[in-house]
Amino acid sequence: MYKSVIMTKTQLLLLSVFILLTSGRADSSSAQVPELVKNKQFQRHAQMAADSLYNFNDKGVEQQIAPWKNKYPNDPIWFIFNGMKLWWKMISDKYDTSHNKHFIDLMKKADYAASKVLYQHHGNADGLVVRMAANGFLARLYSDQGEWMKSLKAAQKAYKAYGIMKTQLPQFPDLELTKGLKLFYSAYLPKAYPVLKAFSAFLPKGNEKEGLHYLREASKHAIFARAEATYFLGYINFKYLHNFQKATSYFSRLYHSYPRNNYYARLLVKSEYKMGHYNNALNAINRSLDRWNKNKLPYLKVLRESMLFWKGRIFYRNKKYKQALPLFEQSLQLSRQLPRSKHRQYYAESAYYAGVISDQEGHKTKARYYYKIVIHAKAAKNYQKKARKKLNQL
User: Which of 234, 297, 315 is nearest to 6 (CA)?
Assistant: First the structure.
């Protein structure tokens, strides 16, 4: 179950392979219009705006970019800030797909605005950054939706823009994220997935150690992608290198750097639980619940759905069943109040553990009720199998 939580997307791996196989031609023609991403002062403001955005502080975002936006209202770079705001609504609750169409339309508009700038001023840095980011976002979303042809087409556009950026603005710090991922996956994927060895001759030369180095540099110096680089450092260490302690340190950095970000709070709790650091997980749960309730932060229900489930798991593990049961029941009730209830992982898993505890306490009717919820859910197939077995034994 845990593997599915930390974005363990086979699609994303295959998409990375495609990106590595695709190359764009570099063009050295100089831009003829102001390029904000080359301006050191703008870079500082954009970095602070990105931090505010990741911390769900919209006012902070506007304070940093408003003077620039007022002076250069037609620069396509503003599409990226708007897109990132919407992206975080989607990340906060992956089951809520109501924003998907709006996001796709926005990124297509961003790509079109960037293409107009690039048509008139070939090699314009702002246009290239927007084209790279917009199509990168689209590629990820399309891959999540299983729309492979659209995903690959967007990935090709993104990487072509990256190829030109390398020559036009080689010192742009966000490029280190792409370079790091390319180096790591070029080296790792052929080893981990034998079917890809046939393509190894077409891949750029990879190096896991160098890839991680560039990711660390991006996590320190990138303008828009510092948090993303830190996340990938945690993700790679967790999923591929199985260095859970180092992974948790990166997730902890995100949790403390962006205390209003519900996704990073949930990510840390799950990683602490996986590490067997149950007291650390419990402390993070209690701190997060208190912070969200006290400050009325966004996505309280989504956060509580997750936190109460994991708190229940900790009590269940410690055989404190009477304390665990109401936590699973509350998590289940929250799932019912959120979009696409039956597709939610915690909807099925909370019901399963509520059924097990009810069964243990001799409440057979109640146990049947919860097991049937699991069986009719649209998620957690492994729990459905276990619930069906438990139900047949009653």
Answer: 234
Burial of 73 per CB tally in 10 Å (0-12, 13-18, 19+): exposed
C-alpha 57/C-alpha 59 separation (Å) is: 6
CATH superfamily of 299-393: Tetratricopeptide repeat domain (1.25.40.10)
* C-beta separation of 165 from 256 below 8 A: no
- For 61-102, the pLDDT digits (tens) are 999 999 999 999 999 999 999 999 999 999 999 999 999 999
The whole-angstrom separation of Cα 128 and Cα 384 is 47
Task: Return the sign of the alpha-carbon dihedral for residues 317, 237, 254, 245.
Answer: positive
Residues in the chain: 394
Count Cβ atoms below 10 Å from residue 168 Cβ, excluding itself: 22
Place of tokens 């001023």: 121
Instruction: For residue 158, give the 3-state DSSP assignment.
Output: helix
Residue 291 has, within 13 A of its CA and on its CB side, a CA count of 18
Every domain of the chain and the residues it spans: 2-172, 299-393
Alpha-carbon span 7 to 231, nearest angstrom: 11
* pTM as predicted: 0.87
- What would the pLDDT profile of 279-288 be if each residue is shown by its tens digit? 999 999 999 9
* Residue 343 main-chain phi, psi, to 5 deg: -90, -5
Q: Print burial letters for 330-356: b (CB count within 10 Å at least 16), e (below 16).
A: bbbebbeebebbebbbbbbbbbbbbbb
Residue 62: alpha-carbon gap to chain centroid? 23
Q: Write b or e for each residue in 14-43: b if 16 or more Cβ atoms lie within 10 A of its Cβ, otherwise e.
A: bbbbbbbbbebeeeeeebeeebbbeeeebb
Cα-Cα-Cα-Cα dihedral sign, residues 101, 130, 178, 66: negative
Chain-centroid distance of CA 174 in Å reads 17
pLDDT at 195: 52
Cβ atoms of residues 114 and 165 within 8 Å = no
Q: In this structure, what token pair is assigned to residue 83?
A: 């897109």
